Amino acid sequence: MALELKLRRADRVYKPADVIDGCIIITTTSPISYQGIKIVLTGTATLQPSLRSVGVLESLYTSIKPIQLLNKSVQVDSTGKFNPGSNEIPFHLTLDGSKGGFGGSLPDTYHGAYVNIQYVLSAEVSRGYMLKNLSGSVEIILESSRGKIPRLPGPSLFVYFYITQDTQKHSLLPSIRSGGFRVTGRVMTHCCLTEPVVGELTVEHAAVSIRSIDLTLLRTESITLNDRMVSETTEVQATQVADGDVCRGLSLPIYLILPRLLTCPTLSFGSFSLEFGLAITITFEAEISKFHAQSDSTTPKEWVINNLSILLVMWLILLCLNFVGDTLR
Amino acid sequence: MRFRARNYEEEEAAVCLPRQPAQHHPLGSTVPPQLSQLQYLPLQVSTAVQHFDEVPVDPLRAISAQDSLLCVPGITVQERSCPQSVLNGTLDELAETAAKDWENHRASILRRFSSNGTIKVSAPLDILSKQLKGRGKFSASAHLQELDEMRGGANDDAEIISQEEYVFRLRELNDNIADAWKNNERVATLRLAVKVAKLLSDTSTPRFYPTLFILATDILETIGNLVWRRIKGKAELDDDGKLIKPLPENFTADDIRQEAKDTCSNWFYKIGSIHELLPRIYLEITILRCLHFLQKDPPIQEFQRLNMMIRGLGDPLASAYARLYLARKGQSIFPRETGYLIVGLDDYLLLYRRVLSGEFEKTIAKIGIDKKSYVSLVEPIFDLYLQYICAFTNKEELLFIMRTFCEQQSGSNVKEFVPVSVLMHYLLRQLPAAVVSTKALDLSRILKKSVDISKPQYLNYRLLGRKLCECHPPAELHLPVLNDVWKEVSKFTDLVEYLTLADVFVEYILQCSSDNEMHALLKDIVKHLKKATPSEEALKILESIVVKVMGNASDLKGFLNMPFFTYLLDKLHGETKKSVQKQILLFISRQNQYLGDPIERDFVFNLSKSLYKSLDSLSSEDEQRQFARLISRFVQLVDFKEDVEQHLLFLVDCRGTFTTMDPVKEAVVHISNRLAVIALRVAKGKLNQHAVDFVKSCVTFNEITIPSLENVLKRILLYIASAEVALINGLISHSESLLKSLLACLQDLGHMHDARNEKFAVELLGCIQKLCSLLLLVPGQPDLGAFYLFRGLVDIIDNELRLKEPLKIEMFLGVILACNALSQDSLPYHVDSLEMISNDELFSGEPWYAEQLAQLTDMVVERIKKASIAGNEAVMACQIFAIAFECDVGDDIHEHYSTLARAAIPLLPKNSRILKFID
C-alpha cells in the first residue's frame, strides 16, 4: 500500500490565491476501506541560530520554535473503499494566507543557511481505529507575484560605487598601495526575483595586473534570540565578471541571475529578517616581495567588509554593496 | 601493251564541281546590331554586386542580330544566392547555411594551426561539481584557495601528454556526454559541458589552442543541438510522450507551451549560475538559439550583453576565440546583424594593441612562443569578423566601417592612431575593388603607417595593388597613388618583398600609366638589384615582371633599348636566365615580324646559342623540342632583304651552331631553297654567272646539310624539294646527284627500318609517290637510258625495302601511272624554266624511247603479276590499269587485267564498269 501525491503542475510553483490541484494516488494490492481523506497545507519558518553567534552549548538547549505561517486543511472524502490496484482521488485547495495570522502576505519559499521557509502539502488517509494511516507529502514552492516594478528611466535607481586603494580598511601590499587602482561601476539595487541583477563595472586604472573580479551574492539572516538580534552573513553564489587582466576603461556588464530557492524577496518578520547583498572582490596578481616572504602556499590577508546598505522595499530584493579589495600571491 | 592516251584538260573539267560567282559575302552583315539587345550580365564572384555594361563582341553573333532565334537572351544577375534567400528562410535553414560556411573556416583553421606538440594538462580538468550549487559559508580563505586551484596553481600534478592523447580524451568526453544524455542525466551532461568549456580557459599551449577551440566548440555545438531538440520535443509532446501537435516550420514563441518554456528558462538559469566567466559565456552562446522558444524578437540584446561580457576575458587568445564563437553563432541566427560585430572587433582591438605594444611579453615568454607566432594565432578573428561585417553592406556602410577602423576616433585617448596591420589586410580583402580604387590615396597613406608584427606590410600593399589593377582608380589619382605607394615601397630592404610589389605595380602601370612611369620603375628595380643578389624566389618574380613588360612591348627594339633588360640578362643565371631567353624567343615568334635589324639579329642569335648550349643530356625531350621550335622560328623570321649571300652565310652559321637541332636544319634547308628561288626571280631572264653560282652554292649547301638530319622521311622530302629547286634553276646534274643521294638513302633505309611500323610505311608510300611525280620532269641521260632513275627506284622498292606486299604494290602502281604519263605526247606539267626540257621534248619521236618505256612498264607489270593481290589493292590495281592501259580483249594485258578484276569482284559495286571486262 502506497500513497503518492501528484500535482498538476510539474514544477510545483504556486502564487498566493492559486488553486493547487492534483490527485492522491493510492496503490494497494488488497481492498482497503478508509474513513477519511484529508489534505493539509502547512507553512513553517524554521530558525536555527548559527554556532558562531550562540555557542555550542547554548545552541543545544536553545531552540527557537518554528513559526507557523499557514495551516489549512481540506477534507477530500469521508468514507470509502479503495479497490486493488491504483486509485486516484482528485483534490484542490486555494492557496491563501487567511489563516496565517500575520496580516500580510505569505513569505516565499526560502531555503537558507539558518532560516528555512517551507510549504508542505500532505495527504492523510485515516483508516480508522487501530489501523495505520496512510500519508504522504510533497513540498510546494510558493512564489509571490513577480510583477515587474515600474522602472523609472534614467540612472536614478542605480547605485554608483567606486573602489580604490583608499577605500579599503585592511592593509594592502605596498605595490598595490603605491600603484593604486580604481574600479567604478553601478548596480541596480532594486530588482525583482525573476530578473537578473544588472549593472556595470569598469576598471579605470590599476597599476598591478588583475587576476579576477568576482561578484558574490550574500544573504544576511537575522534571528531574534533572547531579545537580541543575531545576524549571519553567508555566501549564496559567486560569479566571475573578469578573468585575467582586462582592458582599462571598458565597462563590463554585471548580470546576475538569482538562484531560485536560495533567494526570496527582502523581508522582515517579527522574529527574523532576510536581507541580501552583493560583494565585489578584486584579486590581483602581485608578487610578494622578500620582506613579506611567505612559503609558496598562499596566505590570504584579512578581509574587511565595508557595508553600504541601501534601502529595502517590500517584495523586492535589495542589495547592499560591499567593497572588498584583496591581495594574493 | 598500249598506253592509254589521256587528255588532262578534259579530265579536269569533268571532275570539277559546278561553280557560280557569289553576289556578296554570305557572312557579311547588313545592319550592325544594337548592343543593348545582347546585354548579358555574368555571374559575379566577388562579394559586392557589380554590373558589367560592356559586352564582348562576338563576331558571329554580331552578324546575325536580325535573326531572333540566334539572339542570346539576357541572363539575369544572380546575387549571392545563399544569404538572400535564406534570410527569409527558417531558423533551421539559416543554421544549415551558417554551418556550411563555418565548415570552410573550421578546416582552414585546423590546417593552418595544426601542431604536434605536448600539452600540459593540469588537475583542474577534473574539478567541476561544486560550481553549480550555492556555496556554503562565505569564507575568504576557502574562496581564495579555490581561485588558486582553478588557476592552475597546482602545477605539481600537471601531466604532460601529447596532442593525440588530448584529442583522444576529448573524444572520450564527448562520448560520456552522449551517454549521459541518453540516460536522461541532464545535470551530468551540463556538468561535462562545463568541463569542456573550462578547457578553453587554459591557454598555456597557444599553438594547440585553435585546434582545441574547434574540438571543444564541436562538442558544445552537439550539446546545443541536443538541448534544442529536447525543448522542441517538450513543446511538441505532452508529459507522457504523446504527440500533441508538431511545430510548424516557422514557429514563434507563441506556439510553445508553457512547460517547454519553463524547461528552456531552467537551462538558462542553470547556466547563469556557473561561477567562472569563460564557461558561462561559452555555454550561454551554445544554447542561445533556444531563446527562440522564449521570445519572438531576435536575441540582439543578449548578443550585445555577451559581447560586453567577453570584455571580461583578459587573455588575448581566449578573448579572441570566444568572440569567434559568438560571431559564428550570430551568423547562424541573424546574419545581417553587424552592430555587435563592429563593437566586438573594436573592443578586441584594444586588447590586441596591448599585446602588440608589449604588455604581455612576460606571459608570452613563459608559455614558450615567440610574439609573432602568438599574434598570428588570432588572425582568424579578423578574417571572419571583417568578412561577416562586410558581407551585406552597401557602399555607404562600407565607408563607415572604413572610417571606424582606420581613422582616429574622437573620443580615443591614443596619441598617434595607427591602424593594425592585420586588420587593414583583411579589410582590404573584403572591400570591393571599386571602393578601394576611389579611396586609394587614403588607403595608401594608412598602409604607410600601419607597420607592426601582426602582418607584413608588403602583403597589404600587394592586396592594394591587385585591387587597383582590378578596378582602376579615377584618372586624376593614377599618378599620385603610384607615387605615394612607391615612395614607401622603395624603402623596402628585403628583395623578395620589394619584387613582389614591383610585379603587382608593373601590371598597374601597364594598365593605367604611361611608359615614363614604366621606365622609372624599371630603373628603380635595377637599383635595388644592384644592392643585393637575388635569390631563387626573387629570380622567379623577376621573370614574371619580364614577361609582363614584354607582353606589352610592341617590338623587340623597344625593350632591348631598356637598360633594364641588358642589366637583367647579365645578372641572371641558371633556370631564370633560360626562362627569360625563352620568353624573348616566344615574343619574337608571336610577333611574327621579320627581323631586319642586324643588332637585334645578333642579339637573338647569341641568345639562342646560349639556350642551345644550356641543353644537355638531362634536359627533357619537351624542352628540347620547344627550344628547337623556337629557334627554328627565329631563323625563319630573319630577313636580309635582298642580300641573299649574307643570308646564306647566316644559314651556314646556324647550321654550324645548332648542330643537333633537326628542326633548325630543316628550316635552314627550306630557306636556302627559297633563296635560290629568289635569286632566280631577281635575275629574271638574264641568268648571269653570279646568280648561277649562287644557286649552285645553295644547292650544294643543301646537299651537305640534308644527310645530317636524323629523320629519314624528312630527308627524303627535303631531297625532293631541293631537287625541284635545282630543276627550276636548270641545274640538271645537281638535281640528279640529289636524286641519286635520295635513292641511296632509300637503300640504306631498307636495312634499318622496321617492317611493322605502319605509320612509317604509309608515310614512305607518300614520299615515293611524290618522288614519282618529280621524276617525270627529270630528263633522261642518253647513255643511261631515259628512265634509269625509275629503274633504280623500282629496283629498290622490289629488293631493298622491307615492306608489306600491299604497300609495295601501291608503290608500283604509282610507277605505272608515271609511265603512262611519260607515254603521252606532252607531259601534264613542265618545269617553268627556259633551260629545262623534259623528256617529252627531248626524246619524243625517238623509237628507243618508247621501247625503253615499254620495258620498264613490263618489268613493273610482271612484278605486279607475281604478287597475289586481293581486296582493296585489287580494286585499286583494276582502276589504275584501266586508267593507264587499253585493256581490250585483244591486248595482252587483258588476261592479267581480268585476273585482277576477278580478285576484286567482292568489293565492286554491281554496276561497275570493271565487271564488263570479265568474261
From TrEMBL, chain A:
The keyword Transmembrane helix applies. Keywords: Membrane, Transmembrane, Transmembrane helix. GO terms for biological process: intracellular protein transport. InterPro entries: Arrestin-like_C, Ig_E-set, Vps26-related. It comes from the Eukaryota. This is Uncharacterized protein. It comes from Adiantum capillus-veneris (Maidenhair fern). Belongs to the VPS26 family. It holds the Pfam family Vps26. PANTHER family: VACUOLAR PROTEIN SORTING 26 RELATED. The chain crosses the membrane at residues 304-324.
Automatic annotation (TrEMBL), chain B:
InterPro entries: ARM-type_fold, VPS35L. It is found in: Endosome. It comes from the Eukaryota. One of its GO terms (cellular component) is endosome. One of its GO terms (biological process) is protein transport. Keywords: Endosome, Protein transport, Transport. This is Uncharacterized protein. It comes from Adiantum capillus-veneris (Maidenhair fern).
